[in-house]
């Protein structure tokens, strides 16, 4: 089977959280190209100007300066060229209101950043099995 | 002039902002510290002197404790705002369910005495109170066999719930502190408790218009909750 690795865009402002995702990728032997934007505005610019290859999957932090995750999602869903992208929301917040806001904007999943790195590795492994499916389509 | 409603809305907005800060802004750096410590430990594995290994363990433990304390602070602040639904509660059945989940596989006996009618109240909050009282009675018990007796009594305007255990009780001098946030008699290394449970319970009972008190008995500890019927 001819599998093509899906591109992943991580929208995250916290350097340690970026490292967290990168380390979790390594631990799970995930080799998909990972692009990074540090806030919602930067992510939109990267997508609209095709600075990155259009990723099929976006991992989005909610709590960011300069356009937070929910605002970014609203913009994304309004954009004809980008509205089909799968977005996984990743946040510390266990607040119901954030979850509802995110689900109303049609997200593929919601990942709670756990305190322990081990738990996060498991979450990323779950994501990996999802985009492996995408690669076969 | 602001009217009452505007002020209330403002207060609510302020509270929501506070809760947001606690759940996002305070938790993020705690998680970062935890991750960085875990990565340092992982990258240095095998090359760490014994002392440093122990210090890493303590670091992880304290960070996890801080994380729990932040969550508890959030729970404490939510007492008057969350889980406000009023629904029927069957106390005997609720205690039965909680007992099963708390005692399975352990040498613990929870008995019940007395009956009260099914009544309407903040069912979620009362369940939290029961669970916390039972958990405490179990956690601090020092006997081979933990024994807990829950007595229910129907009074005119209230339900009286008494939870008695055969544990070590509490030094009389410390009794007044047990409903204080983060007060605990357990060593700081213990992860099961940060000393927030009874403070939250006290806040819930007061919010519901009830009363709570704790005392030593000849063979253990007793907590009494007077919970108003609506």
From TrEMBL, chain A:
The organism's place on the tree of life at top rank: Bacteria
Pfam families, A to Z: Response_reg
Domain Response regulatory: 7-128
SMART domains: REC
Keywords for the protein's UniProt record, in alphabetical order: Phosphoprotein
Range of residues in the leader sequence: none
Modified residues (4-aspartylphosphate): 61
Name of protein: Response regulator
Originating species: Adhaeribacter terrigena
Lineage: Bacteria, Pseudomonadati, Bacteroidota, Cytophagia, Cytophagales
TrEMBL record, chain B:
SUPFAM superfamilies assigned to the protein according to its UniProt record, in alphabetical order: ATPase domain of HSP90 chaperone/DNA topoisomerase II/histidine kinase (SSF55874), Homodimeric domain of signal transducing histidine kinase (SSF47384)
Reaction equation(s) it catalyzes: ATP + protein L-histidine = ADP + protein N-phospho-L-histidine
Presence of keyword Metal-binding: no
GO MF entries: kinase activity
Enzyme class, broadest EC rank: transferase
Domain Histidine kinase, residue spans: 21-230
Domain of life: Bacteria
PANTHER family in UniProt: SENSOR HISTIDINE KINASE GLRK, TWO-COMPONENT HISTIDINE KINASE
Protein name: histidine kinase
Organism whose genome encodes this protein: Adhaeribacter terrigena
Lineage: Bacteria, Pseudomonadati, Bacteroidota, Cytophagia, Cytophagales
